[in-house]
Amino acid sequence: MRLSELDEGELRFRLNSSGLKFGIGTFNVLLRTPLPIVCENVIKLYEDYPLVPDEGFIDFHVELRSPSTTRHYFRPQVAFYFDGHNPFKPLPQDQAFAMFEWGLNWCIANAAHQFLNIHAAVVEKDGVGLVLPGSPGSGKSTLCAGLLSSGWRLLSDEMGLVALDGRSVVPVPRPIGLKNNSIQVIKSLLPNMPMSSPVDDTAKGSVAHLKPPRESLEMAAERADPKLLIFPKYDSETDTRLTPIGKGYSVLKIADNSFNYNILGVKGFRVMSQLVDQMRCFDLQYANMAEAISLINELAGSVRQAS
Amino acid sequence: MADDEIFFVPDDISFLTKKWEGESVVYNEASGETNLLDERTEGILREISSAPQTKLQLAKYLRDHLSEKILKEDHEVSREIDDYLGLVLSQLETLGLIDRRRREDRR
Hints:
The structure holds two protein chains of two kinds. Chain A contains ten helices and 16 strands. Chain A is α+β, with helices and mostly antiparallel strands. The longest helix of chain A is centred in the C-terminal third of the chain and has 18 residues, at 289-306. Chain A is globular, with a radius of gyration of 19 Å. The model of chain A has no long low-confidence stretch (mean pLDDT 94). By secondary structure, chain B is of the alpha+beta class. Chain B has helices spanning 39-50, 55-65, 68-71, 74-94; strands at residues 5-8, 15-20, 23-28, 34-38, 53-54, 99-102. In chain B, a hairpin with a 2-residue loop joins strand 2 (15-20) and strand 3. The radius of gyration of chain B is 14 Å and the shape is globular. In chain B, 22% of the residues are buried. The model of chain B has no long low-confidence stretch (mean pLDDT 87). Classes of the chains: A alpha+beta, B alpha+beta. The A-B interface holds A 246-249, 251-252, 255, 262, 265-266, 269-270, 273, 277 and B 16, 18, 20, 22-25, 27, 29, 32, 34, 36-37.
């Protein structure tokens, strides 16, 4: 049963009382919040996600509400609670939905050590899993959203969860976080995909979240075989080009973009080595989204033919 | 070439290596660090790992693995190998993968 099968009143009631339980790929989340901005965006962007039955195990108990200070009377704020703890400073309340997404990232990064967790978007098309690691500002999420317009399915926008045998990537498809100019770029490219209203003046500038395609959620139980590794770098002044890079160098670059490589120790090295072993590795500089997508589709075609 | 030192992997150091064409990554279990080595440096580390080596022994290993074209300029190569080995061994020491002792210190 999906969230969309409950009427809006019931969804709001659950969110505001015992909590709404829903599945995000391999994780189950319980979210409680009385804040209308979070309710509206959850209903809008998570409508295709499966509900978790009452007896279902919950990985992350999350609550967003006003912090218990008097400050909220003159400047409303939101605080994020995970298992009753409040790990972050409050934010202005108009950033509440973004805080839910960021906070959930933090939960997964800190708890999900049954995977090698890399800061990467992951998409898949016709059997070719593509891992796109990147630091903030690299254009990773924008490119990931752009690839969805070209028939790729979303496994992850922020966190690539690699199984500990190093041979597959586990889907955790969530709304794609977009920033600043990329919001308009993706609105033009995917005009029919719902997006949260942009929020200005966050620590990351203006932010909005894009709803994942329903097809990606329907395939959320299907892992992908990682066959391509591309480190994207958006640069408006450059030509769009793919450059092959060494696998050893790729290991170091992924390790730099991993949340728990060091925590996993020897196991992390083995997973990383296996992961990189089975992928062709590239740097991508891009200024033009259409050219980047075309190059990636061409490359994926050659990988498909070779395998 | 000075040959009064022996290079070795300390007992408390163990590492994992993954090789690809032209480069390798080495994971130092003690420090948790991962390092990228070129093929030749990884070969030197492997030699030292298999048994403690003097610089002369490592120079011989390098000569055996260098191409014939390079070996033609013999005298030049000897000096370059000495410099190159000094650099590589110093790097491997800095990475905590090997150590050195004087020959008379051998226990």
